[in-house]
C-alpha cells in the first residue's frame, strides 16, 4: 500500500516541569501526552480507514470523514506549532529587529499588538486558538481567531505564532481564568522561534522572485 505515511506525536524540546510556574508539569503532560496524542491517533485512524476503503473500493461518508480529518489534523498541526513557540522562562529572547518593525508598522506599537492578540484569544467563542499569520500578497501581519482547530483560518497564510485557549490547555492551573493564562503566555513565548518562522517566510518570498 503506497499510503503508508502517518502523523507522529512530536517530542517536546523541554521537560514537563520546564515551564513552571506558568504551566505546571501535570498540566503540560496531560495537554501533550493525552490531548495532542489523541488528535494524532484519531487522524491516523481516519487515514488508515480511508486507505482500506479505497483499496477495497468501498464508498464512505466523505462529509463526516473529511470534517473529522480536518479537525484532528488541524489539532495536530496547531499543537506542534504551539510547543515550538513556548519556552522555559530563562531562555526566552525578544523578537528580531525586522519582525519588531513590521509589528509596529502593522499595529502601531508592540503593546498594541500584544493587546489585540490577547483580546482575540480571550474572546474566542468556546474552544480555539489565537494566531499571528503573515499574508505574502499584502505583506501584512494579521491575527486569526481560530475556532476549534479548523474554522476561521486564512488559507495559505504562514502562521508565525499560536496560543491554545482550549480549556485543556490551562484549566488545571487557572480554572476558568483564561485571561490570566493569556497574560502569562507572553512570559514563555519563544520569540526566537517566531522570528525564525518570519525569516523563513521572507526568504521564500525572495526565492519566488
Structural description of this entry:
The chain has 2 domains: 25-87, Fe,Mn superoxide dismutase (SOD) domain (Helix Hairpins, Orthogonal Bundle), CATH 1.10.287.990; 90-208, Iron/manganese superoxide dismutase, C-terminal domain (minor pseudopilin epsh fold), CATH 3.55.40. With 209 residues, the chain is mainly alpha-helical. α1 (25-55) packs antiparallel against α2 (62-84). A 3-stranded antiparallel β-sheet has the order 2-1-3. The chain is 52% helix and 11% strand. β1 (128-135) and β2 (140-147) form a beta hairpin. It contains 7 helices and 3 strands.
Would you spell out the secondary-structure blueprint of this structure?
Blueprint: H1 25-55, H2 62-84, H3 97-107, H4 110-122, E1 128-135, E2 140-147, E3 158-164, H5 171-174, H6 178-185, H7 191-208
Antiparallel strand pairs: 1-2, 1-3
Number of helices: 7
CATH superfamily of the largest domain: Iron/manganese superoxide dismutase, C-terminal domain
Q: Bin the strand percentage.
A: 5-15%
- Unreliable segments (pLDDT under 50, ≥5 consecutive)? none
CATH architecture of the largest domain: 3-Layer(bab) Sandwich
Q: Strand arrangement, largest sheet?
A: 2-1-3
CATH class category of the largest domain:
Alpha Beta
Helical residue percent band: 40-55%
CATH topology of the largest domain: minor pseudopilin epsh fold
> How much is the average pLDDT?
94
Gyration radius over CA: 18 Å
Sheet with the most strands, sense and barrel status: 3 strands, antiparallel
SSE arrangement, N to C? HHHHEEEHHH
Q: Rough shape? A: globular
Number of strands: 3
Distance between the termini: 39 Å
Total of domains = 2
Amino acid at each position: 500500500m503506497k499510503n503508508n505515511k502517518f502523523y507522529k506525536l512530536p517530542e517536546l524540546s523541554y521537560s514537563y516541569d520546564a515551564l513552571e510556574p506558568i504551566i505546571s508539569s501535570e498540566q503540560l503532560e496531560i495537554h501533550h501526552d493525552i490531548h495532542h496524542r489523541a488528535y494524532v491517533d484519531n487522524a491516523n485512524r481516519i487515514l488508515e480507514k480511508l486507505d482500506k476503503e479505497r483499496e477495497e473500493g468501498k464508498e464512505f461518508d466523505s462529509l463526516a470523514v473529511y470534517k473529522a480529518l480536518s479537525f484532528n489534523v488541524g489539532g495536530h498541526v496547531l499543537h506542534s506549532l504551539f510547543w515550538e513557540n513556548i519556552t522555559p522562562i530563562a531562555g526566552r529572547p525578544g523578537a528580531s529587529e525586522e519582525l519588531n518593525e513590521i509589528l509596529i508598522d502593522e499595529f502601531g506599537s508592540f503593546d498594541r499588538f500584544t493587546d489585540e492578540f490577547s483580546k482575540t484569544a480571550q474572546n474566542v467563542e468556546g474552544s480555539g486558538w489565537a494566531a499571528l499569520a503573515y499574508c505574502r500578497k499584502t505583506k501584512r501581519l494579521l491575527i486569526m481567531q481560530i475556532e476549534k482547530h479548523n474554522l476561521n483560518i486564512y488559507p495559505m497564510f504562514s502562521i508565525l505564532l499560536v496560543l491554545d485557549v482550549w480549556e485543556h490547555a490551562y484549566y488545571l492551573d487557572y480554572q476558568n481564568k483564561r485571561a490570566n493564562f493569556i497574560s502569562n503566555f507572553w512570559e514563555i513565548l519563544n520569540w526566537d522561534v517566531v522570528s525564525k518562522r518570519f525569516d523563513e517566510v521572507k526568504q521564500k518570498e525572495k526565492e519566488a522572485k
